[in-house]
Amino acid sequence: MLDRLNEALEHIEAHLGEPIEVTELARIATTSEYHFRRMFSALAGMPLSEYVRRRRLTVAGAEVLAGDRSLLDIAVRYGYGSGEAFARAFRAVHGVGPGDARRAGAALRSQQRISFRLVVEGRSTMRYRIVQKEEFRIVGKKARVPLVHEGPNHAIAEFVRGIGKESTARIAALSDQEPKGIVAVSDDLDPSRAEGTELDYYHGVVTSAAAPDDLDELLVPAGAWAVFENSGPFPQSLQYLWRDVFTQWFPSNPYRSRPGPEILSVTLTPDGAEADAELWIPVERTEA
């Protein structure tokens, strides 16, 4: 899997001056576009679109300083429709416009080429199981919140506090299948998975029952789920678990992620500092 991802990165380098289609990158990596985006952001620590932008403007920056081509020629060469659009993008990455950079010989920022490799550390064993589930519902309260990769998500915390104990107890009573009890559900995430992009967050339960009129509902089709168990400091260990699933488990197992909600079941210690958790990720088997 990592070899094929690296072949896709080579394709990016060979086509920095052209539109880069994620469908073609996914084809090279022999996976789905959905899974390719998620794998890349987990492994690289940034969205695919951001990496392409930085690499394109890193190479363009070297040409600006070399002075062999006009700024407009460089802009067109790297896919910008006008000198103004190129200047805006250039300034966003390098902190200085291309004209000023050329005149002053400014120091520019460089996004190094990424390549992926497997580092075998052997420090821990990831506990998981594969579960087949029939169609079910997520029923509870929904909010549109920003994505936070590390640290508390204050928007989610404020939303959950506003639900109230009585409503939470009524929602919890609807739970009738795994994972049991109140769960945190993330759905409709931006494909880039960039910090600050928005997602639908459900504070609810997994159930076969239809939602009462005052609650929100998400219908989830039948399919396979990889269920990962985790214990540790809250919320850091849970955020690291998501990262480890995509950087360690997927490259080593014959599965890929498929569209669908991610479900997190958490049991906190009385002081809220530690948690036992299960993370449910929708998956499908890859072809042999």
Task: Provide keyphrases for this structure.
elongated; 10 helices
Beta fraction: 15-25%
Let me know the number of strands: 9
Average pLDDT rating: 88
What is the ordering of alpha helices and beta strands? HHHHHHHEEHHEEEEHEEE
State Rg.
22 Å
Shape: elongated
In whole angstroms, how far apart are the ends?
12 Å
Major beta sheet summary = 9 strands, antiparallel
Low-confidence residue ranges: 120-125
Q: How many alpha or pi helices? A: 10
Helix content: 25-40%
Task: Give a concise summary.
With 288 residues, the chain is α+β, with helices and mostly antiparallel strands. The protein has helices at 2-14, 22-28, 33-44, 48-66, 71-77, 83-94, 98-104, 154-163, 165-172, 236-252; strands spanning 127-133, 136-146, 183-187, 198-207, 216-220, 223-233, 255-257, 262-268, 274-285.
